Amino acid sequence: MTLLLDGVRAATGLIVSGDSEIWSILWLSLQVSGSATLIALLLGVPAGTALALARFPGRGLVVSAVNSGMGLPPVVVGLFVTILLWRSGPLGALEILYTPAAIVVAQAVIAAPIVTGITLAAVQQVPREFRLQLLALGASRVQMIWVVLREARLPMLAAVMAGFGGVISEIGASMMVGGNIKGQTRTLTTAMVLETSKGNFEAAIALSLLLLVLVFLVNWALTSIQQRRAL
Amino acid sequence: MVLRLVVAALVPLMLAAPAGAGSNVVILSTTTSTQDSGLLDVLVPLFERRTGYTLKTISVGTGQALALAARGEADVVLCHAPSLEKRSLADGTLTNRRLVMYNDFVLVGPEADPARIAGDKSVVAALGRIAAAGARFVSRGDKSGTHTVELALWKVAGVTPAAPWYIESGQGMGATLGLADDRRAYTLTDRATLSAFGKRVALRVMVEGDRPLRNVYSVLEANPANGPRVNAAGGRAFADFIVSPEVQQVIRTFGVDRYGQPLFVPIAGQREEEVAP
Fold first, then answer.
1. What is the rounded average pLDDT for all residues in chain B?
2. Chain B interface includes A42 (CB < 8 A)
3. How many angstroms separate the first and last alpha carbons of chain A?
4. B270: distance to nearest CA of chain A, Å?
């Protein structure tokens, strides 16, 4: 129990004193997971919308695959992205393994199915009659999709939260493709594992509190947008 | 508005990311215990300032550290498993093995000491008694340098360790110490990790100072033939750096401020017979 209190005290100390390493780790985590979420949105929203509106043979299989992908184990993604980015791998010439860009790639792969799956569900819950009515009123297909997406925007904010929450707290992939290099690819979660294995439990607790606060603040901001628009 | 903020925050990252790449990047594969000791946090900036190279340090198990270099994914290796290192030299994937430093392992166990080994001079004899008594022993079981040393010691002791008294944690040293403490078991640990966890575990040092407990670190360079992008010159530069007199002096005093005693003894330039088991 004293350890926990010491941890909270140390955390407050570290945050208040503006320890530059902690802040740069925090900033890197935010940038990396933010970029990954953004990429996942760019891929997942069109893919989810297309899947929701299109009808083709094997669609059920694809939807099942997307839904399974929502639970893609980060360590599996980490392993395959590492192998792709190895110097000897097919994308080795990029030389981005052990850089923040590699973590962004891996996290985008983790988040994309989450965004796709939730978008799919969000678009599908817009009544089919509504879409037909839009078309009957003379909307083009692009205009119809645009309006449907606007209708579905509240549940789609949940996709952003789920995607971001999934990748900011993920460890397996960040560790494997980033390498936990001090000052370069050390994120909140990989730093936490390192401090724990070093026996620096106070620092590990401080980092976990920061992570929790960060996740809360991001979700709070998104939720307030969502709820304001809901009224 | 929010989107614009996000993009503004992310663009510099995207631009900055590939800037680290290029032929001036050296990849060092090393072991978690090396990283946990904090020594690299001192050496890496020194090396980068001195040579202009960017050093990426990947801390993994010894087995993986050697395998990465053998595949050409790393340029230089710093590790502590002489038997595995010599195998890599023999198959030609790594070259130019040079001794760097050593620290020592200790055999720790619970206060009750069920196998009666406290104060034993010989670690091999002590392991024999643990096996004979069927007292619990926690092994890393992760092909790490520490695990490799432990297996070699069991072999010398003529014991094939097995369940139920032999427990494999499959985790790092800190977690393994925690498990040994919880199960009131013996385990082999490096002294630095024990110092770091000393307050959290009730394990006592049982056997120390025996020669086979010396944990010898060497630096090895990757053979340029291992892959198309091996940075041989950079790997060589790091190896030369860590055995240089100036860096050996840094190693000699490292850890005094934190643990009250140095963590490593520098041995560059010495012959293996003088220092090793």
1. 87
2. no
3. 44
4. 30
